TrEMBL record:
One of its GO terms (molecular function) is ATP binding. It comes from Pseudoflavonifractor hominis. InterPro entries: AAA+_ATPase, ABC_transporter-like_ATP-bd, ABC_transporter-like_CS, ABC_transpr_CbiO/EcfA_su, ECF_ABC_transporter_ATP-bd, P-loop_NTPase. Belongs to the ABC transporter superfamily. This is ATP-binding cassette domain-containing protein. It is found in: Cell membrane. Keywords: ATP-binding, Cell membrane, Membrane, Nucleotide-binding, Translocase, Transport. It is a peripheral membrane protein. Residues 6-246 form the ABC transporter domain.
């Protein structure tokens, strides 16, 4: 994962008539095949950052924009949105707002058709995308009659049909039940592990972040507060409290233990890590008694 596939340099953005900038001097890079999660309190600028990373800013969103975003070697200011969409796809939080047709196959092909991709290529890509998101066999179904998790998977398939190198997911599970959430994260995990796709996701689901994310970028009041591994982010109580971050339960327990003066050999963010660390700590305690 050494190749830089997304480069954000000193980027700032202010919406029309807004009193302040929503994003201020943003700098970071994303490597090919990386799973980056964006976290932060409400109003921190997460959705605005997704628009900037996908090229919606500056092409479809009015406002004051400074800095540079380079997507797969293309500066977003110097290339059109259709050009950028061949490299980066975006899926929003509300699956209902992303449905435009009455059949799943038409829905999955919709974006690619707008890019004027050849029909036979669209068909191949759509078949592959439906297989990846486990929606093969639903081609003739009405997408409005699917479950929330199925609708979101169709939305992901629509983005995948355009064969992006980077996939942005803006709160893709915020309106889903636990089953729908698991369905979406299973798809995202397969895209990363099997296809080496670069994933950028906005989410508050810390348990899932701990399972899948390589790094976490924390936004606070429009600025990058921190960017590091889930372990280091969730271990830093100052960052967690300042940005109002949700933290995995095992990490909450670990932080409390450390603040009580009890040293830990490792900091757990996943359940299985917690079982291992806390079991070892219990054995050490029993041995001293």
């Amino acid at each position: 994962m050494d190749e830089i596939i997304l480069d954000v340099f000193d980027a700032s953005f202010r919406y029309p008539n807004a009193p302040a900038y929503s994003l201020k001097h943003i700098n970071f890079q994303v490597r090919k095949g990386e799973f980056l999660v964006i976290m932060g309190e409400n109003g921190a600028g997460k959705t605005t950052l997704c628009k900037m990373l996908s090229g919606i800013i500056p092409h479809s969103q009015e406002g004051v924009y400074f800095g540079d975003v380079t997507i797969c070697g293309l500066n977003s200011k110097e290339h059109t949105l259709p050009e950028l969409c061949q490299h980066i796809g975006i899926v929003l939080d509300d699956p209902e707002s992303q449905i435009f047709t009455t059949e799943v196959l038409d829905e999955v092909a919709f974006g690619a058709e707008n890019l004027e991709i050849p029909t036979d290529e669209i068909q191949r890509n759509a078949d592959w995308a439906l297989q990846v998101v486990r929606m093969a066999g639903y081609e003739e179904k009405d997408p409005t009659r699917l479950s929330g998790g199925q609708k979101q998977r169709v939305a992901i398939a629509s983005a995948l049909t355009m064969q992006p190198e980077i996939l942005i997911l803006d709160e893709p599970t915020s309106q889903l039940d636990p089953i729908g959430t698991i369905e979406v994260f299973q798809v995202v995990r397969e895209l990363k592990e099997k296809y080496n796709m670069t994933i950028i996701m906005v989410t508050h689901k810390s348990e899932e972040i701990a399972q899948f994310a390589d790094r976490v970028l924390v936004l606070h009041e429009g600025e990058v507060l921190a960017m590091d591994t889930p372990q280091r982010i969730f271990r830093n109580k100052e960052i967690v409290d300042k940005a109002w971050l949700a933290v995995p339960q095992v990490s909450m327990v670990a932080v409390e233990l450390e603040q009580s003066g009890i040293p830990l050999d490792a900091f757990p963010v996943r359940l299985e890590e917690g079982v291992e660390v806390f079991s070892a700590l219990l054995q050490e305690t029993e041995a001293r008694i």
